[in-house]
Design goal:
The structure holds three protein chains of three kinds. Chain A is of the alpha+beta class. Chain A contains eleven helices and 15 strands. In chain A, the strands form three sheets. In chain A, strands 13-12-9-10-11-14 form a six-stranded antiparallel β-sheet. The longest helix of chain A is centred in the middle third of the chain and has 15 residues. Chain C is an alpha/beta fold. Chain C folds into two domains: 143 residues, Lyase, Ornithine Decarboxylase, Chain A, domain 1, CATH 2.40.37; 261 residues, Alanine racemase (TIM Barrel, Alpha-Beta Barrel), CATH 3.20.20.10. In chain C, strands 5, 15, 16, 17, 18, 19, 20, 21 and 22 form a nine-stranded mixed β-sheet that branches. Chain C is globular and about 90 Å long. Classes of the chains: A alpha+beta, B mainly alpha, C alpha/beta. Strand 4 of chain B pairs parallel with strand 1 of chain C, so a sheet runs across the interface.
Chain lengths: 357, 94, 462
């Protein structure tokens, strides 16, 4: 690695076992594509974000201000980091920071920080409370969803033909299955406390969870799609094991959605294949998924493709679809010396040259 | 001007157990680590000074006097802030 | 001897899960020394603490922006200034000078508007209780009356008969937009047919003439689609009413509820990310209205006047509250607390907003989670449950914003007299627009019966 090599800053280093952010997996994809020819700057929101301590993937790490502190605070912090070690490309991996970051794209570009992100309008069109309109426009089936502001809804839910179990979701993150009114109200309160209002209620579709990751080119095309079916999930419904698949029907739906959005940037489309074999749209995430390392495994390293698109470089070759590769997620402990934790707590950053690597 | 000798009750203020404070690892950065509880903390400059003075076995009088030499602070304000800080230390380090 | 270092109160912050990030709650600007060009510390020194400060310039600019956003998109627009949001004479008159009518919801507010010199013909009269005498005066003076329920409809009809002429009235409607929690307690419900019943009843009346429709879908409505749907529903009902009875709807009053740039508790993202601007509200509303009145325009019927009762979004950021720290402590759970001379008695909205709080002076200390308590001897008197602030000395002044909406109308005279309100005039002059209350304000209206004149009468005096 040299001082002048390409530097990519990646957020979402919260690779916690029960609900991982994608940042560490993205870093891993880029490290495998470029080895030490790339400098990876890990950006986190908590000194305990596990990815920040995987020094083989993060050459340096910095803590950011919370999205709730506002766009100006986040910009100031990003520019402070950029001053300390120039960032060529910023690759955000968390839903909650995207509304702020898309607004900061011009400011960042002016300072030489590139991004490859959707517009604010594109982002809003796939937000969980507007997804139904998009699905209608793209001709994609979707379970009925309602935005609610009060737990009172569940009192009359069954009268209104909302039958349990149903799914209670936050506008940014979190989805819980509620089997009865008590569970629904509890889920509502927990989600509202963490992610705010409104909270979404969605009919539960029984079927198989299939997800598709890719990159929108901003002109309506979907590039490098990789499809995965969950084979086992954790107690919170997160993938524990999955397998690469290929289904033209899923691919076709994804292309229609990306075309309707004219999406630019990474995207994950979450679908459920119901008992009739029909795909129902569950969510569109404006970022790479935590399972993105599978893309590198099937020969379609999507973070590397994004890097090429963002920097106007020739795109890496994409292998033909390769169904049948499994991923199995596991947990292990990273050992962190107190001195490294101290520096992260006191200074809010760990620079490569003084690292405990 | 504030009176130089504000309190006659200071011996009644319960200082944290010096043995408990002595086990703390204090870093110049303000990082404080308690090897017994495993908890860590961040102290600011004046907080760190007070912790060091208490680790050294100083009485409240002595802590207040030392702070007065190091910082621009009246004895009565220093005493007030130390009393409040000590109450935090008692609950943080047991 | 070395120079002594400045004293900053000692701080010890525990590293807790979920909060291990010194930059996490960072804010770009941690202090606020001035508001609308006026230095704040001298104002406190002159007028005492606490103190409300209103910017005339910002108030007028907000009203102009609102008007511009809508009048560039719809031919006829009217703004009714919501007295219940801020009813102080100086504020109302600044907005009336910007062309706003008065929107009042009670007898007291109606009288206040008239006393300020607003003619009845520029008053919009809403609310669930309009006593007969004031309803009669309002009808005689040509105010826009919005009937809330059937009893009021009959009362208005009886008054019109007494007045001996046919009086125009509007109906308040309520309905479900699908985007906001319906407010069904005010007005006539659309879905049950109660609203159309009222239309027919007015149509059958010799004394009442239906000329307007009003509805108010809620408060702090962040989703502009709710307003678009409201506009569609009201335009549809306008056509239906005109088909049903012989009437011409002159105006659609869509009420208020636009959000201000304030941080509502329970909303994750900061206000600059979630609060739509006037242009976004206007775009959604006028687009829906244009679409919904296309057939009407084709028939050569005039387009209705669009009436807005925007209060909060016009006044909220035009006022700040200054307060001083009177004491500090650490709570048993380790949180730092500051006690201020202003509490929920002055800042009623602290119950639902996380107001921005900044010291007037730059303060180098380490920001720490702080609870802000007011001076009331009540457990509920809390202005912020958690805000990152540097250590605060006694006497330190803080600026709380935005506070313009509802605080000066809902403040309490509980334990403490209410403080002064000053206005930074457009030319930078400072004017008192409401003097600080005193003991006389509290005791003045009281009367002591003869035998209760003294607290401890001498036995010999009996």
């Amino acid at each position: 690695m040299t001082a002048s090599c390409l530097s990519v800053a990646i957020t979402g280093m919260n690779a916690v076992p029960d609900n991982p952010g994608a940042g560490l997996a993205v870093a891993r994809c880029l490290r495998e594509a470029h080895g030490q020819e790339i400098r990876i700057v890990g950006l986190g929101y908590d000194a305990l974000d596990p990815g920040l301590h995987r020094r083989e993937y993060c050459d340096s790490v910095h803590l950011l201000s919370y999205p709730g502190s506002g766009a100006q605070a986040l910009l100031a912090r990003l520019l402070e980091i950029h001053e300390a070690e120039p960032i060529d490309l910023l690759l955000p991996c968390l839903d909650s920071e995207l509304p702020l970051l898309v607004g900061l794209v011009p400011d960042l570009a002016e300072r030489g920080v590139r991004t490859y992100l959707p517009s604010a309008e594109q982002l809003a069109m796939r937000a969980k409370d507007r997804l139904a309109e998009l699905a209608r426009e793209a001709g994609v089936a979707m379970p009925e969803t309602l935005a609610i502001a009060q737990a009172d809804f569940f009192r009359a839910a069954e009268r209104e033909e909302w039958r349990y179990p149903l799914v209670v979701k936050g506008v940014f993150h979190d989805a819980r299955i509620a089997r009865n009114r008590d569970e629904a109200e509890q889920a509502f309160r927990a989600i509202a406390a963490e992610w705010g209002l409104p909270v979404l209620v969605q009919r539960r579709i029984v079927g198989e969870e299939c997800n598709l990751a890719g990159i929108g080119d901003g002109r309506g095309a979907l590039l490098g799609e990789v499809m995965m079916k969950k084979r086992a999930v954790t107690g919170r419904g997160k993938a524990w094991a999955g397998i690469s698949i290929h289904d033209e029907a899923l691919s076709d739906i994804a292309r229609r959605l990306v075309a309707a959005l004219k999406w630019r940037g990474p995207i994950e489309i979450e679908m459920i294949r119901d008992s009739q074999g029909e795909y129902q749209l569950i969510e569109i995430n404006p970022r790479f998924p935590a399972w993105i390392y599978l893309s590198q495994g099937v020969g379609r390293n999507l973070p590397d493709l994004l890097l090429a698109l963002a920097l106007d470089r020739p795109p890496p070759p994409l292998a033909p679809p390769a169904p049948g590769l499994l991923f199995i997620r596991y947990a292990e402990e990273t050992l962190v010396p107190l001195a490294a934790f101290e520096r992260l707590m006191i200074e809010g950053q760990l620079l490569g040259d003084t690292s405990s690597k | 001007m504030e009176p130089q000798q504000p309190s006659h009750h200071r011996q009644t203020v319960a200082l944290p157990d010096p043995a408990t404070l002595k086990r703390l690892a204090l870093s110049d950065s303000g990082f404080v680590f308690d090897p017994v509880s495993g908890n860590s903390f961040t102290a600011n400059g004046s907080g760190l000074s007070i912790l060091r003075l208490l680790q050294g076995g100083n009485t409240l009088d002595q802590v207040v006097a030392s702070l007065g030499a190091e910082f621009e602070v009246t004895p009565s304000l220093a005493e007030r802030d130390v009393i409040e800080f000590i109450s935090q230390l008692r609950s943080a380090f047991k | 001897m070395n120079a002594r270092k400045p004293w900053i109160k000692p701080v010890l912050t525990a590293h807790k899960p979920g909060g291990m990030n010194k930059f996490g709650p960072a804010r770009p600007q941690l202090h606020q020394a001035a508001f609308d060009g006026a230095a704040l510390e001298p104002l406190l020194a002159q007028f005492g603490s606490p103190l409300f400060v209103v910017s005339e310039k910002r108030l007028r600019e907000n009203a102009r922006q609102l008007r511009r956003a809508f009048s560039t998109r719809w031919p006829k627009v009217r703004h009714g200034w919501s007295y219940k949001t801020h009813g102080m004479g100086a504020v109302c008159n600044a907005l009336h000078q910007e062309g706003a009518w008065a929107e009042v919801v009670s007898e007291l507010e109606y009288r206040k508007a008239r006393a300020l010199g607003v003619p009845g013909s520029r008053i919009i009269f809403n609310g669930p209780w309009k006593p007969d005498a004031i309803l009669e005066q309002a009808m005689a003076e040509g105010a826009a009356i919005h009937l809330d329920h059937l009893d009021e409809l009959y009362a208005a009809e009886a008054i019109a008969r007494r007045l001996g002429r046919k009086v125009p009235v509007g109906l308040r409607l309520n309905f479900d937009t699908g985007y906001s929690e319906p407010w069904s307690r005010f007005g006539f419900n659309l879905e049950t047919g109660a609203a159309m019943d009222a239309v027919r009843r007015i149509g059958a009346s010799e004394w009442l003439q239906l000329n307007g429709l009003h509805s108010h879908i809620g408060t702090f409505v962040l989703d502009v689609r709710a307003y678009a749907q409201q506009a569609r529903i009201m335009a549809g009902f306008m056509d239906a009413a005109e088909r049903e009875i012989d009437c011409r709807i002159d105006y659609l009053d869509i009420g208020g509820g636009f959000a201000s740039r304030n941080a509502l508790q329970g909303i994750y993202l900061p206000p600059d990310q979630v609060v739509p601007g006037f242009d976004q509200y206007a775009e959604a509303i006028t687009e829906a209205l244009t679409e919904a009145t296309r057939a009407r325009s084709g028939q050569g019927k005039p387009l209705p006047v669009l009436v807005l009762e925007t209060g909060r979004a016009v006044v909220d950021d035009a006022e700040v509250l200054l307060t001083r720290v009177v004491g500090g402590k650490h709570l048993p759970d380790g949180r730092r607390a500051a006690i201020l001379d202003a509490g929920v008695n002055l800042l009623f909205t602290a119950y639902w907003y996380n107001h921005d709080v900044r010291p007037l002076r730059a303060n180098a200390g380490m920001a720490e989670e702080t609870v802000l308590f007011g001076p009331l001897c009540m457990n509920i008197d809390q202005l912020r449950a958690s805000v990152m602030l540097p250590p605060l000395q006694v006497g330190e002044a803080l600026c709380i914003s935005p506070v313009g909406a509802y605080n000066n109308t809902q403040w309490l005279q509980f334990i403490h007299a209410r403080p002064a309100v000053v206005m930074i005039m457009q030319d930078g002059r400072i004017e008192t627009i409401r003097t600080a209350e005193s003991l006389a304000s509290l005791s003045g209206p009281e009367c002591l019966p003869a035998e209760l004149q003294t607290p401890f009468p001498e036995p010999s005096a009996r």
